[in-house]
Every structure is written in C-alpha cells, then in structure tokens.
Specification:
Helices cover 66% and strands 5% of the residues. It is mainly α. β4 and β5 form a beta hairpin. The strands form 2 sheets. The chain has a 3-stranded antiparallel sheet with strand order 3-5-4. It has helices spanning 10-20, 23-28, 42-55, 67-74, 78-90, 112-133, 136-155, 158-175, 179-199, 205-208, 214-225, 228-251, 264-276; strands at residues 4-5, 40-41, 64-65, 94-97, 101-104.
C-alpha cells in the first residue's frame, strides 16, 4: 500500500526539497528554506527526511530510531517506516537493532583516514570520467550547483554551503556515467556532509574551516573542455585541501569550554581520531 505525504511543516518541506534538488530556484536562492511541499510515497518521504536529518546532524550518531515513534511522527504505519530504515541502512547511515528499529550510525575514528583515502580516489575517478562522458544536460546541472555554491559562499550560509557542495560533486559523479562509481561517491559525499557539519558544533567551526571556490571553478572548466587530465588534477588538489584542512582542524588544541554539552560526542570523536591520525597532506 502506498502512502502519499507532503511535508507536515515548512522545515520538513525544506529538508525534502533540498535533498531532491528542488528546481532552478534553489540554485539562485540558496538561503530560501521554505520550499513547496514535494509529494512522495510514505517510505520515500520518511527516507528523505531522516536521511537529511542524519547527514546534517539533526539526528546525531547513536540516536535510536524507534519504529513506533517514527510511525506516530509521520502519521504512517510501521511498514513504510521499516522500508525507509532499510534504505538508510543500505546507505550506511543507520544500523538495525533487533526488535528495536535502528540506530544512527556512528563515526569510527580509526576509519576516518580510510574514508579520506576513498573520497580522494572516487573524486579523481569520477571527475576524470565526467570530463569524457558528460552531456550538455550534465554541464547544465554541474553549473547550476556551482552558481548556487558561489551565492551561498557570498551569503556565508555555512550549513547550506555544505549541502550545495555535496550536490555539486554528486552531479559530477552522475556525469561519469558509471552507476557503481556514482553510487559509492554519493555515499562518501553524505559521510563527508556529516563530518563537515561537525565543524558547526563548535564556536570556531564556521570560521575555522573554509570551503574554497577556485578548485570548483577549475573542475567546471576542465569538465566543460573535456580535459580529463586537468579534471583529475583539480579533483586531486581539491581533496588534498579538504584532507589537510580536516586534519588540521581536528588536531587543534581545544579549551575546556568547548568540551561542553553542545558537542560532547564530537569531543570523543576528536580524541579517538588523535590516537590514530596520519600526517596532514601537504
């Protein structure tokens, strides 16, 4: 049985619209949080809302997702809730709990260096292939997200910028025309969104980490020109920048006032990461 639902409030409407790509107006007005409700089936709607809440840390790691509670929240039976949780588990965003629904997947600090390695490889591969395989429609989509990213940077919308940055790279992944690569890349990008949102949990997070536009422009130019070597080089440079900035940020000494109720989980992640960190990429 299919359940049709529109977002129950402006916040949920914005969450669903953002994750679906929400049309040309999103590219020109990244600050607009209220979107027209997107009609989705019950399971798809729950999946989109929960997925967005997980990657933006509205639902932090290790949060239990109870099927009964979620059914009440969304006004649905447990079947579409269960279907949504299964999809989220396939994305690596939740972990099934026996007879208890699911739990938001945590961060394994020991795997962060491996994540950065995987992201680097996939960004280079998909960018190179995109320069070879992209279509005119792909270029329009890539440029639309790039323009939105530039607008978001000017307005200083850190959380919005993080999401648009993901959408920009995901569009490049789709342009590679390899569904295996693009699917894995999307999963890595979603994990990257969660890591980037970690910065916003700290007072110095917004100013302590900068997302630059120069490498994005270089990627757009190379892919548009069909220059695979330049696209791969720009992607490699871009991921090195992310790698070095992430490790530099997470390695900085923090005063006790940061180890507060605002972000206790992230302090634990940072401390665990320091035990297994690798040297920053120069």
């Amino acid at each position: 049985m299919m359940h049709s639902r529109t977002a129950r409030n402006p916040k949920d409407a914005a969450l669903v619209a953002e994750d679906e790509g929400a049309g040309p107006d999103r590219a020109e007005q990244p600050a607009a949080r209220s979107r027209p409700a997107v009609k989705l089936s019950g399971a798809a709607y729950v999946y989109q809302v929960l997925r967005q809440e997980i990657v933006t840390l509205a639902l932090i790691p290790n949060t239990v997702l109870d099927e009964t509670g979620l059914a009440a929240r969304f006004g649905l039976s447990r079947s579409p809730i269960r279907e949504a949780l299964i999809r989220l588990e396939a994305d690596g965003l939740v972990i099934s709990l026996r007879n208890r629904g699911a739990m938001v997947a945590g961060f394994d600090a020991q795997l962060v260096p491996k994540f950065l390695d995987a992201l680097g490889v996939m960004q280079r591969v998909t960018s190179r292939l995109a320069a070879i395989m992209r279509t005119p429609d792909d270029l329009k989509e890539i440029n639309r997200h790039h323009r939105a990213y530039l607008v978001a940077l000017r307005e200083g919308i850190t959380r919005e910028t993080i999401l648009i940055n993901r959408d920009f790279h995901a569009a490049i992944g789709r342009a590679s025309r390899n569904p295996y690569f693009s699917s894995l890349y999307q999963r890595l990008l979603d994990e990257g969104v969660r890591l980037l949102h970690m910065y916003t949990q700290y007072p110095d997070g917004v100013t302590g980490f900068k997302l630059h536009s120069a490498d994005h422009q270089a990627l757009v130019d190379a892919i548009t020109a069909g220059d695979a070597d330049s696209a791969e080089e720009a992607a490699h440079r871009h991921v090195q920048q992310f790698d070095a900035a992430f490790i530099a940020f997470i390695s900085r000494p923090r005063s006790e006032d940061l180890k507060s109720r605002e972000a206790p989980f992230w302090d634990e992640v940072m401390l665990d990461f320091m035990k297994t960190r690798r040297p920053a990429v120069g």
